Amino acid sequence: MSPAIWRLVGFLAAVEIASGVLQGYYTPIYSDIADHLRIADGDVNWFEAVQLIVSALAVPVLSRLGDLHGHRRVLIVATVITALGGWLVAFAPGFWTFLIGWGLQGAYTVWLPMEIAILHERSRDRPDRPALVRRGAALLVLALEVGVIAGALTAGALQPVLGMTAILAIPAAATTIALVAILLGVRDESAPATGRLDLPGTALLSVGLLLVLGGLVVVRLEGLASALAWLLVVAGAAVLAWFVRVERASPTPLVDVRALAAPGMWPVQLAAALFGMSVLGAQIPLSTFARTDPAEVGYGLGVDAGAIANLIGLYVVCMAIGALLSPMAARRLGVRGMLVGSAVLVAIGYATFIPLHDALAHAMLAMGIAGVGSGALVASLPAAAAQASQHGGTAEAAGLTNATKTVGGCLASALFAVALASTGSISDPTAGHAPMSGYLTVWAICSGSALLAALALSRLPSGDRETTATASIA
User: Does residue 40 carry a pLDDT above 80?
Assistant: First the structure.
């Protein structure tokens, strides 16, 4: 990389460290947050649902605005929104204010697509542009995972020492520092795309996603037999079909649905949705399985929170390793081979859980394998989408991988909640332990969705392997 690109990646890495803090910091203190807000532990699930919905709605719109008005400008706007949400979380007087702030923080999901778009445009005159973007994305994902670990460790260390307001202010401060890093060190040399924001398309996409994701939330609460849930999902699907027709006829679509059908694009977006089912949906089932006492119910690992933290830490480290190895794998196997192999690793990891789930070592083996594949996909899917995009649509293409991944995570979250319900009330987890068959279903879905992602990625056009000249990150 040139010194200018190294400098750019360094400042963007500060943003991804903040992203990692947001994703890892709250996990050890969810119960403390529930006590702070005087809510039941089960109500914490609403935080996940709200942020996923906000992310799915915001990413396509912000990504398109980035292509139209500048990626750096939208990166700044998204960071300001995230920081405001963080400070609102820290000083929220009650549950609903906290929930609004938590939802606003979901704007951080557009950071990585914006950063990859900036890297893509800044390297447009380089002959090794695709390889350079992949290496930059790998380093950004490494920074992300460092932030996840640092956030989790910091929260655990500060929880006994500080009050909740001070503890909750740490992520907001990290986001504010990221904003300063963008203002000081990130330049955007992209040529804005022509056109304007497609307001009818934005409205239809927002309504369609709200209906579908709202239906999935109702599935989590009432189960698959809920008529309201299916009504919402069907209505949402109808609105999204209408959205596709409108976008096909629009001269400046929010989402270029014709470009999505390109051979280099649809496999990436479909794989992102399928990958989202495991990377966003499997962590809570893993945590509850690990905490279940086998002496009491006949299955589970019976470990404490510290062991779960170590397991999550192993997963995150393996994700970082996978991200760093992905450029080398792309050079040796080709981009398509690297992506397919990464998805297969995720499938093998979760499939390992099915026969081997009686000891912590089994879980560590499974999550280690899945982590390497997941890290490579997190780093490579947005870069692959940006590379396949037409000029002026890099942020839109990269952002869509996050949006489709989020929708996949919402779908998995609803399905897993149903699979793990031991009673008719998903909203009351104290009513009984989930059946072992439910956990087997979760792991089978994660493995199967990853295999389908590998199959989709195998349909990508074959490309040249990276040359020796692009071999080294240094």
Answer: no
Query: Rounded distance, CA 218 to CA 212, Å?
Result: 10
Tokens of 186: 């990130």
Residues in the chain: 474
Q: DSSP string of 33-65?
A: HHHHHT--GGGGHHHHHHHHHHHHHHHHHHHHH
Question: CB pairs under 8 A, 24+ apart, for 242-249?
Answer: 242/204, 242/208, 243/201, 243/204, 243/205, 243/208, 246/200, 246/201, 246/204, 247/198, 247/201
pLDDT computed for residue 472 by the predictor: 31
Task: Decide if 402 contacts 411 (C-beta within 8 A).
Answer: no
Instruction: Express each pLDDT in 400-434 by its tens digit.
Output: 887 888 888 878 877 887 777 654 334 444 445 66
Can you give the pLDDT at residue 81? 96
pLDDT of residue 427: 42
Q: Which amino acid type is present at position 393?
A: G
Which residues, 6 or more positions from 29, have their beta carbon under 8 angstroms from its beta carbon?
155, 156, 159, 167
Q: Is 224 helix (H, G, I), strand (E, B) or coil?
A: coil
Q: Under the phi-then-psi rule, with left for phi > 0, alpha for psi from -120 to 50, and beta for the rest, what region is 70?
A: left
pTM of this prediction? 0.79
Q: Please name which of 319, 385, 379, 308 lies closest in space to residue 349, comparing C-alpha atoms.
A: 319
Q: What is the per-residue pLDDT for 425?
A: 35
Residue 165: count of CB within 10 angstroms of its CB: 12
Among candidates 327, 366, 381, which has minimal Cα distance to 444?
A: 366
Query: For residue 430, what pLDDT is reported?
Result: 47
CA separation for the pair 132, 137 (Å, rounded): 9
Residue 358, C-beta contacts closer than 8 angstroms, at least 6 positions apart: 294
